[in-house]
Amino acid sequence: MLTPEFYRSYRVVQAPFWSSVARVIFATNAGLARTQFRVEGWESLPAGPVLFATNSTQKNDFMAFRWVADRRARPCVTVTKAKNYHDPVMGFLLRRLGVVPIASKGYFLLLDFTQTVGRRPSDAEYRALRDHLDQGVPLPAGAPFDTLANTARRVLEHDFDPTRTTWRAFQQGLYAHGLGETLRLAREAVQAGCDVQMYPEGTVAPRLGRGRHGAVQLAWALGLPIVPAGMSGCPGAFAGNSPLLRLRGDDITVRLGAPLTLPPDFLPADFAPFDPEHEAAHRDTLNGFVRERLMPAIDALLDPPFRHVENDTFVGKGTKAFL
What we know:
41% of the residues lie in helices and 12% in strands. By secondary structure, it is α/β, with parallel strands linked by helices.
C-alpha cells in the first residue's frame, strides 16, 4: 500500500527487462489476435513531453495506448489508481512498467473507514464523510462517525491522535502527502523525457463521462501541454476485463487532438496543486476548463458509440471505484 516507505523506494521509469517482456507479450498477443491499431494526429505532437488526457472504456486499455506510444519512440508513464497496488501481482508489475500511483480523497477515506469500522461505508455514510471533508459540513452524531473521529490509530504509517488534530485535518494531510508524492514521481518521469498519460474521468465507463480536474492540476504543476486523446474500440478488442486481446476482436483507434496550453494567468503563481484549500478556492476555474475545453476535445476524437451522452444512465461503481 501507499506508505511513505512505498514512495521512498518507488521507481517511476520502466525497468528495461520488464518493459521488454511486456512489449514482446503484447506484440505477440496483438499479432495472434489480428488487432489493427489506427492512429491519427500523432505527427502533430510537440517534441517535448506532454500530458495525454485519455478516455477509458476498459481497465487495461492503457496497454493499447502505451503500445502505440512505444512504437513511435515516445516513452510514456501512466497514472493509475492506488487501489491497483492492493493486488500483489498487479502491484508487482506496475512498479516495474512505468506507472505513477495516484490516490484520491475517496481512497484514503475508504481505506481508513474499512480498517477502523470493519466494513465499507453505505452510500449515505460516504456522502456525509465527503461533505465533511470537502465542505466542512459537521459529521452526524453516533456510530460510525464518532469512532472515526475519536479513535487513535495508524493509517498508512501516519498516526492519528484525536486529542491533537481532527479527523478532517488528518485526512487532508494524508491526501496532501500522497498527491505530493504523485507530483514528485510524475516530475521525475518528465525529467527523464517521458510523456505522462492520465484519465481525467477517474474511472472506466462505456461512454465518456464527467471529467475531474486532477489532470489539469498535474499539467499546470509540470508545465506540460495537455493533449486530448480519444480511444475507440477497446471493449471489443480486449477479452472482457482481461489484459489480453481477443482473437479477431475489434480494432483500436487512437486519435490525438491539438494540444491545450494553460495560459500563464490560469492560476495564481502561488497555487499549490492538490492542496485541499487551494483546490476549493479555484474549483470553478479548474472545473470550467475541464467542462468547457478538455472533455469536449476528447469527445470529438471518439467514435460515436463512445461519445458523451447527456443524462446517461451509467451508474458507475460507487465507492468501489476508490478501493
